[in-house]
Structures are given as structure tokens and as C-alpha cells.
Amino acid sequence: MVSLRQLISSRKKLQGGYSLVELLLAIGLFGFLISILFAGFVATRDGKPQQKQRVLAAALLQETVEAVRVVREQDWAEFAQNGVWHPVIDPVTGTTWTLAVGSEVVNGFTRQLTISDVQRNSQGDIVASGGTVDPSTKKIDITVSWTTPLVSSISSSLYVTRYLDNLTFTHTTVTDFEQTGYSIDNTLIVANPTGEDPDNGYIRLSPLGSGRGDWCSPNPDFSEFDLSGQADATGVMAFYNSASSRSEVFTTTGQNASGNPLSYVRVSNAYPPVPTLAGLFASQPQIKANAVFGVPGYAYLTTPRPGQEVVIVDLSNMSEVGEFNASGSVNGQSIFVKDGVGYLTQGSDLRIFDASSPTGSRTQLGTVGLAGLGTKIQVVGNFAYISTDSTSAQLQIVDVSNPSSPGTPKSFSVNGLAGKSLFVSESGERVYLVTAQSASQSEFFIIDASDPTKNSLSVISSGNTGDMNPSAVATVLDGYRALVVGSGGNEYQVWSIVTETAPTVCGFLGNLGGIRDVAAIVQDNGDAYAFITTGQSDSELKIIEGGPGGAYSPMGTYESATFDAGATTAFNRIFYTADENAETTVEFQVAGAPAVNGSCAGVSFTFVGPDGTANTYFDGIQALPFMTQGTGYRNPAQCFRYKAFLETTNVDVTPILEEVTVNYSP
Hints:
Helix content is about 10%, strand content about 45%. The protein is mainly beta. The protein has three domains: about 25-160, no CATH class; about 165-205 and about 555-665, Sandwich (Jelly Rolls); about 225-545, Methylamine Dehydrogenase, Chain H (7 Propeller).
């Protein structure tokens, strides 16, 4: 058991322990209070001087801001140099500010300002990176620092523009776009009557090609002509005679000899066109003609008559004045005349003859064998392009740069069917070929012939003509539409070849008695027509109206009138509103120039893009380049123009330019 004495002794020990802890706590608390009291004493001692320093620093910072604005207004070119600077009183004038390199120490304060570029995104917003440098905006970072009584600093950032005013001029109405001095090329300025402003307008690409109609919507009842007799028309050839302002059309009969071998028809450029028979060629004895090639004043006919495979007719009196006697007794088939040289396919031979004169007996210059019956020939440049009925070589190309010694034909096969006809683009880069009908294979082919010397040519695309057995092909609308004609099914087919890799039928006609041949022309008044020969005995010649319809030129430009700022001005940015998609684009170039004797009249302009050269284009909200020497472009300048470039990769759609705004600083 624990005695009373032991309990008392234990209590005394506990009481002694608490006293020691309390003593330690008291000592710690005293030390903490002493540090607080000391810090408060120091803060009390330094607070007022530190506050005074901050006030002085703020005054220096505000003075720097004012100096920046003064220097900016005096000379932007001098001001807008990136780097670290400090403001000083101009030693020359002694009354204004200028900038000196580096920082400065003023009464114990270190002061500096840093000038740096500003970038903007395509919407014109300032961004930290990934944008385009705006040469008319600078970022200014100002810092004032000191070391006593405490190390401290204050700073400020601001953005400044070229001058106090940032003005704009905007073109968005017909009146704006049509100010005196503007120019357009394959573009149109169109009024938008649905806008709030009746003068509101926009710019789009102009219609592609010519004509009032639409190739893709052929009119079956436009015009037709009955050739004399019971002629069974075959070939047709047409050209526009600008001297007489009319179309000259030549048709032949080759299925029978009951009609005249040549009918010469003149078509007025009135609307609708009026065909008139200008003459008939009636040979004795009567002959059939398979094809015709017309030139001003004369027509060259191919015939089955031995010794006269080519007959030359004087159109002034419809008399025979010359001929070409090809070797053997095989019929003359297709003919082409170019630069005083005639090209005839006779059976499986190409005959080249002297056509420098249309009269008398013409002599042979050269000959070359073909893979089969030459069904159609066309000569472009130094090459003759021939379709043949061979199943292994539907297309052959012959170098005829030396007519007396033509090259060996290069042969190309597409589908193993007989070649019926072809059409070659004006540049020679494309061959459009049609073959005999097939229920399962394509009969219409687009061939890349950009290099006719190659041993193999690639087929870009092809299409099936359905129940129609093709007989001829031609292209219109600058090669964006193809006319494929034949017998059966949809005999007159219009193919859209805007996308060469995917041709599609956009219009057709049928029940025409079978179409034997087609030729297309554009008159100088803009009207466009296709001339077809058919098997309908009362209307062998038909005229089908064509035109762009909804098709647009692939590219065009609009150049603004001159904007006169009245004095030398910094042109800063260009931005616009346009309706574009993946197939269309709108881009710009700008031109600035100094005035001549205070006037912008007669000033020469050099258009440039963002890099100051003619090789680039503005395609969004972008800063305009500043150049004072080098090319003919100047900025700052008094006189200014812009040029808009509109393009489309699909001629069935056009970009629309609605508004253009240029920002400038006077």
C-alpha cells in the first residue's frame, strides 16, 4: 500500500514539473513578441521613405509614357525600332523628347523601355505568337527600379499605333467599286437588290465563254435547215468569218448520192440565227462526199472517186477547181488543211499533200501507214492526231514537222474497240476520243497528250455513253464541256468536264434520227452554237444554241480606282469580306506610290504581296509592307490601289467579294 507521505511527495514533484514548462513557454513567447516589435520598428522606420520612392518612380514611369507618345508622333520610323531604350531631351531642339539606347539611372532610379513587335491573327486580334507582325503597332514595356531603402520596381505595358488617327476607306457598294479608274478582267460588279442599301454590290467571276444559252440545257427547237434533195448528211465543218460577220457551215452527203455532195450554208449573227443556203456543189457525174474542210473561199471534200480522193471547190461559183489524186483506189476519209499543207486519211494511210494553192492537181508530199482506217484527223502544232478503227490502236500520233518525211506513228489503245472520232484541244495537251459502243465499257475518253512524243499516254478519265453509239466529239466553253454525238439513246450528250477525273453528263437530246457529225463555233457577238448533221431528211442540219449557263471564268481580277490620301500616309492593313469555299479563293495585292506634282493622276503602280514582291498575295487580314526604296512599290505613300484576284477550280461556282477595307494612318 502507498502511504500518505508518498502521495504528498509525488504531488510536489508534479508541481515542480509544471513550473518548468511554463517557464519555457514564457521565454518562447517573449522572443516572438520581441521579433514582432522589432519588425514593426523597422517597418515604421523605412515605410515612409519607401512610399516616397514609389511615388517618384511612378512619376518617372508616367514621364516615360508621355515621352513615348511624343517620339511616336514625331517620327514613327525612328520610334519603331525594337530594343531597350530610355527617354532623353533632344540635344538639338532642347524642347522635345527622343530615345537613347539602353537604360539610364536617374537619382538612384533605373529606367528603361523595351520596344517589341506585335502579332495579329487573321481576325486582327493581338496574339502572343503564331500571327503576322503588324508594322503599325508596337508593344512598349516600361520599368523603373530602385534599391533603397528596399529593392523594388514598378512597370507598365502599353500598345501604341503609328499615329493618333487610324482611318479606313471601304468599298462595298456598286458606286464604291465603280469609281473612275477601276478595271476588271473576267469579273463583274453586280448590284445586290436584296441588300438594305439598293446600291449594295459585290464582285464575282464573269460567265465563262460566250453565248446566251446554256450548253447543259440544249434547246431541241432552236434552228434547223433542210438540205436540198434527199441528202443523207454526213460530215459538217464550220468556222466564223469575222470579215463578213457570219458563220460559214459546210455539210456533205456520203450515205447516198441523191443529194449534193456539198451544201454551203451561211448563218447570220442575228438572234436567233438565220441559216441561208449560199451554194450547192453538184459534180458530174454526181459523187458522194465523206468529209469536208472549209477555209475562206474554198472547201476541200473527200470522196470515194478514184483519182479524186480530194476535190477542191471554189465557193464563189461552187465549181471544182482542184483535186488531189491519192495512190490506189481507196476512198478518201477525213481531211484537215493547215498552213498550206493538206492531210488526208485514205483507208489505212495518211497522205500529206501540197495545199499552198487550191487550184489544179495537188502533189503528194509524204505518206505513212496507219494501224487501221483513219476515221478522223486533226493537226495541232507539229503533230497529226488520228483516230483509227483498229481495235489495238484507237489513237495514233504522227510528227509532221517535215511534211515530206512524216515520223513513225505512235499508237495508243484505250478499250479494244474501234476508234470513231477525236477532238484535240487548241494547246494539244488533251485528246478527246470516242469509240464504238459497248454495253460494259467506256466509249468517251479524256487523254493527257501534253507530251505527244511519249511512247505511252495516260487516260485521265472515261465515261459510258449508254445506248448511244458515238460518231463525233467536240469541246466547248474553253474545254469545260464536251459534246458527244451519235446514234441511238441520247444522241446529243453534253458532258461537264470541269473535273477531268470525273466527267458527267449535264444535258442531252434524243430522237434526232442519228447524229453523224458536230462542229461548234462562237460568233464575235458572243453567241455560241453547235451545228449537227442528222439522219432526218427534212432537217439534216440543226443548230443548237450554247452558252455558259451557270459556268464562270476560272480566274479574273478587279483593280480598284486610285485612293488619294491627300498627303504621304502609312497604309497599315487590308481586310475583306468574301464568300469562299474549298474550290474558290480571293487574294489581293496592293500598290502604293508617291504623288507626281501633288497629284495621283498618271502615277505608275507596282502591285506586291506581304513580302513586298509580286510573288505573294494577301489572303486575310494582313499588315501591308513598308518600303521606301527598291521596287516601284512605296509605303508610306499618297496614292494607293488594290487588286483582287478571284479564282475557282470548279467553273460552276464563283467566289464573291463583298467588301474591302484598307486601314491607314494620316
